Amino acid sequence: MTSSPEGRVRSLKRFMLKGKLDGLRVVVTRPEPFATPLIEAIEAHAGQAIYYPTIAIEAIDDPHSIASATGMLIDADIIILISRNAIEFASQLLDEKLFNKPAIAVIGQSSADTFSTLFKRQVGIMPATTIDSEGLLQTPSLQPAQVKDKRIVIIRGEGGREHLANRLAERGARVNYVELYRRTIPQGHHRKPDPDWINGKINAVITTSNAILENLLEMTPESQRAALLNIPQIVASKRGQKVAASLGFLYDAVVSDNASTDALIDTLIKWQQNRVNHPD
């Protein structure tokens, strides 16, 4: 993630005013560079962060795909960058001149900041309500009258959700994908010590995507899976909560407003306060 040291210090000072985690031991599973701000914020709140990435993001750097993507982006009326990863890889793999369009859409402020930093310009479309696809679909620029017969390109990772594209197609848009990265299980994870799920010293696990949840279970030794399934999960959406339940986690996953560091810290603090006030 692209952020200045000064900005990070300001964020940590702001976090420290919110509350304490009182030694709460939290496993952080998101990959770098997105893990570091969350780990620092947990520790700034007197929590303990255990870094255990369960997903790796790698570029799809295929010349044929890049040539095809370039053609689609030249003709696009609207470009949607679905995540910070999409923005990062677009800046690495594609000509920045392709993004000199007024109708660039992202799904959150952190994505907007990343785009501005890397492309030296502002986005034109961003949700004003929820930080998700539904929020984006509510923006004035993506209503049926505005997108009918428009060419929309969604830049995403391999095998992403179809919901946004389907809704835009229902509104009359012509939608194509550009897939610039894939999600994998980290290489060499079997050589890395696993968190000791059995010892009862881990209080919660932050899992902000379905792939992270699924990989977490796959990477955990069979002998420790029952213990893992008994540890509360902090997720970033109702959909993540349903996935956790379907995978066999015994507690209802705690749903954060979104996957930002601010929202996750707020969720952890409220959850910890509830644990203290209502112990089992």
What features would you highlight for this structure?
single chain; 280 residues; alpha/beta; Rossmann fold; 2 domains; five-stranded parallel β-sheet; five-stranded mixed β-sheet; 12 helices
CATH class of the largest domain: Alpha Beta
Number of domains: 2
The main pleated sheet reads as: 5 strands, parallel
Percent of residues in helices comes to 40-55%
- The tally of strands reads 10
Fold-level CATH name of the largest domain: Rossmann fold
Instruction: Write down the overall geometry.
Output: elongated
Shape-level CATH architecture of the largest domain? 3-Layer(aba) Sandwich
In sequence order, what are the helices and strands, one letter per element? HEHEEHEHEHHHEHEEHHEHEH
Q: Mean pLDDT, as a whole number?
A: 89
Structural class: alpha/beta
Strand content: 15-25%
Uncertain spans: 12-17
Q: How does this model look, in words?
A:
About 40% of the residues lie in helices and about 15% in strands. With about 280 residues, the protein is of the alpha/beta class.
Summarize the structure.
With 280 residues, the protein is of the alpha/beta class.
